[in-house]
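Reopening: C-alpha cells for the tetrahydrodeoxyuridine complex, inputs below.
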Amino acid sequence: MENKQLIAKALEAAQRAWAPYSGFRVGAAVLLEDGTVVCGNNQENRAYPLGSCAERVAVNFARATYPALKIEAIAIASPDSAVPVTPCGGCREVLLEAVRAQHNCDIRVVMADRTGELYREALATELLPFAFEFK
Ligand code: THU
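Re-run output (same inputs, fresh job):
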C-alpha cells in the first residue's frame, strides 16, 4: 500500500478521535505484513493523564488482534496540524517494543500534516536512539 493511501486512512480515523480537551485530533493507520490496515485515534479522558495517543491505540490493537503479523508501517496524521505529526517519546518506546517483538524488523513511520500531502518518513529505530533496553 502506498504511503498516501495509508495517510488517508489515518486522517479518516482522526475524524473519530475523542479529543474534547485538547481539540487536537490524531489518527494512526497500521499496515500489517498481509496488507491488513488497523486504525486508531487519540482517546482522551477528563482525568488527563489517562488519555491514549492514536499511535498506541492502533499499535496495541494491532498487536492484540493480529499478534502473528508483523507491522510494516504506521501513518500518523492530524486534521488539526499544519506540520507533520511526529510520535511522542512514549509512543516511540511502544513502536520500538513492536520492532523487537517482530525480530527487529523495522517499522516505517510516516508522519503527515492535515493535507496528507506533506509527509516525512523515518524508521522506528531511527526515532529513538539510546532507547531504554536491558538484558
Ligand atoms: N497525540 C497523539 O495522539 N499522538 C501524537 O503523536 C501526539 C499527541 C494526542 C495526545 C492528546 O490527546 C492530544 O494529541 C494533544 O496532545
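The pocket of tetrahydrodeoxyuridine is lined by residues 19, 22, 24, 26, 42, 44, 51, 53-55, 76, 85, 87-88, 91 (CB under 6 Å). The longest helix spans residues 89-101. Marking as resolved unless the reporter disagrees.
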